């Protein structure tokens, strides 16, 4: 299976419209790969909080339209990263869009863990609540977004739902790049799954982006890693390696869920 991660440069020197046109062309040029992945909130930038409201769109908005057309023109599965979605009730969500090679919207995922603590995305957007997997011909993809990477229980839920390849669009800051790489490898090792994590390049809202999009195999080996600037990272991988790894080193079968009942019995 071949995948291209499009590590898009997101900075204020380029308008949202111009970036949307540029990214649409880049997706069209990926004909021949099976899966294309874009980063989180690449229209606005993940830290451009003040533009979320103005640039929010519905699931039938300009980004969704452009991505549907680009996916069908290229004939690829497209994880189009995420958009600031305005839901019918007015709530904003950080919503990922996955398109089939025919350009149909196969799945949406509203980011569950919002970043910012008591500001930014955490107060401007609503939280998703549903785990999402998508069946591709070669593999079952589990989707998560950026800050979700820090929450291993979400990924265990995706594995329980059948995920073999974990796709994670992000707008991860340069300041915590070491966490990004470490956590991507950790999620791959502990879940014995491929991890395809696609970040952004550039600087927006004063936050330099880490870049370093990364593809990790179920043994934790890094198959490909981008630099810091805009880059297309194309990688070939064998989805069958997930079953082989899980069979040869069946750690997932040894999961034991802890219980608090023992501790309660021992309490005075
Ligand atoms: O967890 C981090 O360090 C970065 C998360 C983030 O930037 C995001 O979710 O947008």
Automatic annotation (TrEMBL):
Origin: domain of life: Bacteria
UniProt keyword Glycosyltransferase, yes or no: no
Keywords tagged on the record: Hydrolase
Domain named CN hydrolase: residues: 1-239
UniProt keyword Repeat present: no
Recorded GO MF terms: hydrolase activity
InterPro entries cross-referenced by the UniProt entry: C-N_Hydrolase, C-N_Hydrolase_sf, UPF0012_CS
SUPFAM superfamilies: Carbon-nitrogen hydrolase
PANTHER family: DEAMINATED GLUTATHIONE AMIDASE, NITRILASE-RELATED
Protein family (similarity comment): Belongs to the carbon-nitrogen hydrolase superfamily. NIT1/NIT2 family.
Protein name as annotated: Hydrolase
Species whose genome carries this gene: Streptomyces avermitilis (strain ATCC 31267 / DSM 46492 / JCM 5070 / NBRC 14893 / NCIMB 12804 / NRRL 8165 / MA-4680)
Organism ancestry: Bacteria, Bacillati, Actinomycetota, Actinomycetes, Kitasatosporales
């Amino acid at each position: 299976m071949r995948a291209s991660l499009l590590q898009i440069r997101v900075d204020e020197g380029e308008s949202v419209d111009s970036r949307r046109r540029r990214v649409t062309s880049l997706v069209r040029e990926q004909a021949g790969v099976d899966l294309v992945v874009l980063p989180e909130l690449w229209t606005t930038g993940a830290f451009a909080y003040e533009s979320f409201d103005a640039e929010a769109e519905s699931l039938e908005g300009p980004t969704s339209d452009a991505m549907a057309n680009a996916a069908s023109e290229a004939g690829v599965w497209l994880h189009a990263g995420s958009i600031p979605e305005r839901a019918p009730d007015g709530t904003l969500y950080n919503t990922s869009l996955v398109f089939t090679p025919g350009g149909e919207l196969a799945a949406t995922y509203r980011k569950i863990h919002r970043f910012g603590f008591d500001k930014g995305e955490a107060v401007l957007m609503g939280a998703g609540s549903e785990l999402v997997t998508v069946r591709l011909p070669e593999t079952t993809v589990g989707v998560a977004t950026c800050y979700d990477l820090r929450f291993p229980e979400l990924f265990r839920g995706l594995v329980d739902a059948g995920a073999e390849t974990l796709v994670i669009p992000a707008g991860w800051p340069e300041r915590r790049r070491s966490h990004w790489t470490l956590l991507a490898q950790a999620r791959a090792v502990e879940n014995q799954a491929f991890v395809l994590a696609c970040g952004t390049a550039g600087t927006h809202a004063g936050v330099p982006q880490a870049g370093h999009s990364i593809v990790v195999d179920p043994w934790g080996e890094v198959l490909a890693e981008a630099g810091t600037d805009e880059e297309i990272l194309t990688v070939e991988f064998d989805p069958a390696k997930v079953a082989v790894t899980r069979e040869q080193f069946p750690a997932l079968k040894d999961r034991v869920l802890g219980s608090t009942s023992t501790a309660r019995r021992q309490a005075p």
